[in-house]
Automatic annotation (TrEMBL):
Record's keyword annotation contains Manganese: no
Pfam family of the protein (one): MurD-like_N
Catalysed reactions, as listed in the record: UDP-N-acetyl-alpha-D-muramoyl-L-alanine + D-glutamate + ATP = UDP-N-acetyl-alpha-D-muramoyl-L-alanyl-D-glutamate + ADP + phosphate + H(+)
Ranges for domain Mur ligase central: 108-285
Name of the protein this chain belongs to: UDP-N-acetylmuramoylalanine--D-glutamate ligase
Gene3D superfamilies: Mur ligase, C-terminal domain, Mur-like, catalytic domain, NAD(P)-binding Rossmann-like Domain
UniProt GO molecular function: ATP binding; UDP-N-acetylmuramoylalanine-D-glutamate ligase activity
Top-level taxon in the UniProt lineage: Bacteria
Secreted keyword on record: no
Similarity section: Belongs to the MurCDEF family.
Keywords from the named record: ATP-binding, Cell cycle, Cell division, Cell shape, Cell wall biogenesis/degradation, Cytoplasm, Ligase, Nucleotide-binding, Peptidoglycan synthesis
EC number: 6.3.2.9
Cellular compartments annotated: Cytoplasm
Gene: murD
Length: 445
């Protein structure tokens, strides 16, 4: 009798877990309460995997010996609560894949910067000739690759939701970029729960492993003092750093690792701005752990192309810069965006608020923002935060209206910035859809 594996959610991670489960001899059943995309239905059919769309057949699900759930399904969902009451193990796709993975892993998390750092680390390793895979929140499903590829190293971007379903998984190199309030709606509006979730990145690490973290982040610094950390610690920050890790000396990034020193002017980095200096430092340290040579590292940090929907300088129309930062789904991301622009800003903001506190933006908005276009079904919180500070605030309910309104409010030499500080699900499929619609409407001006 085969062990029964139920996969809840049939997106990239769920389908990947189903393929790996089948390969490892499980009897697999995939169930999605939403509509499964046609391309994934076709894959499941091709692999002859049993699935259902737009429903959960509870009797079948409750027979599972192991359940892999999509990171998007909260633990409070009724079906998950019933499984937990039955003491059925419910894990994430990353945890499941980790059981069958023999490659080294670089796992990257944080409230902001994790996608850029993940793609930059992958770029450096790949360019240096490492047999490397890209997984987690970006790239192809980790489980799918473990089932069908043969990489030596994986660079894996992990959200807190993925980390929550990870128990025995161990990262060879764990990278923690920063911790600022995000997704608090999923953590009972308790920052402690969110911090604990992020720190799961270092669970099970031994003295043979590495923990790369931002020494300038107060939340991380406080938390480190409370914990016993087994891994070798490699901090990075904007002050000078004599020990192993990364720091700044004048305008030079200096990375020390195992008696090897790397230096590079921040002016030569392809990614500019303070937040990107952090991203480059973290990726640089991780690469040095994997013995990437200094000249290869320097070349890759200078020619990396950046990430779509993250501070993407898109077009200039009649002297107005249009910047797509749709990936900014929390207030801290938007802070970095506003901080990095040195022209008057027309800011397009709004969406599904995740327990946002906009007060950290007060000074930047006061100094730089001449108008706000509120793009969401409910903009009351944005109005409450900024009505007194910004003379022009406009409410819109579509991207077409948002871009037109911003264009009329901007003048030659200004910047229109889409940096919503909110999730996208009220009006868009996801942040990519929101960013693509923005770019389409800018092209149409």
């Amino acid at each position: 009798m085969k062990n029964s594996l139920v996969i809840l959610g049939a997106g990239e991670s769920g389908v990947g877990a189903a393929i790996l489960g089948q390969k490892k001899g499980y009897s697999v059943f995939v169930s999605d309460l939403g509509k499964i995309k046609e391309k994934y239905q076709n894959v499941l059919s091709d692999y002859d995997i049993d699935f259902e769309s737009e429903k959960h057949s509870e009797e079948k699900i409750m027979e599972a010996e192991l359940v892999v759930k999509s990171p998007g399904i909260p633990e409070t969902a009724p079906v998950i609560q019933k499984l937990l009451a039955k003491q059925t193990p419910v894990i994430s796709e990353i945890e499941f894949a980790g059981r069958y993975n023999s490659a080294k892993t670089i796992c990257i998390t944080g409230s902001n910067g994790k996608t850029t750092t993940t793609l930059l680390t992958y770029h450096i390793l790949k360019k240096a000739g490492v047999n490397v895979g890209l997984a987690g929140n970006v790239g192809k499903s980790f489980a799918w690759q473990v089932a069908e590829e043969n990489f030596d190293v994986y660079v894996i971007e992990l959200s807190s939701f993925q980390l929550d379903g990870m128990y025995d998984f161990r990262a060879d190199v764990a990278v923690l970029m920063n911790i600022t309030p995000d997704h608090l709606d999923r953590y009972g509006y308790d920052m402690r729960n969110y911090i604990s979730s992020k720190f799961r990145i270092i669970q099970n690490q031994t003295s043979a492993d590495y923990f790369i973290y931002c020494a300038d982040d107060e939340v991380i610094q406080k938390e480190i003092k409370k914990r016993e950390i087994n891994a070798c610690s490699l901090p990075f920050g904007l002050s000078e750093n004599a020990a192993d890790g990364a720091g700044l000396r004048e305008d030079q990034i200096i990375i020390n690792f195992n008696q090897n020193q790397f230096s590079m002017s921040i002016l030569d980095l392809s990614l500019q701005g303070k937040h990107n200096t952090y991203n480059s430092m973290a990726a640089g340290i991780a690469s040095m752990v994997f013995k990437i040579r200094n000249e290869q590292l320097r070349e890759s940090l200078a020619d990396f192309k950046g990430v779509e929907h993250r501070l993407e300088n898109f077009l200039k129309v009649h002297g107005i810069d249009f910047i797509n930062d749709s990936k900014a789904t929390n207030v801290n991301s938007t802070w970095y965006a506003l901080e990095s622009i040195h022209k008057p800003i027309v800011w397009i903001a709004g969406g599904v608020d995740k327990g946002n506190d906009y007060s950290m933006l007060d000074n930047l908005v006061g100094e730089k923002v001449k108008a706000i276009v509120c793009l969401g079904k409910n903009n009351a919180k944005l109005h409450a935060a900024f009505d007194e500070k910004v003379k022009n605030m406009v409410d819109v309910t579509s991207m077409e209206e948002a871009v037109k309104a911003a264009y009329y409010l901007a003048r030659n030499g200004d910047t229109v910035l889409l940096s919503p500080a909110c999730a996208s699900f009220d009006l868009f499929e996801n942040y990519e859809d929101r960013g693509r619609q923005f770019k389409r409407e800018v092209r149409n001006l």
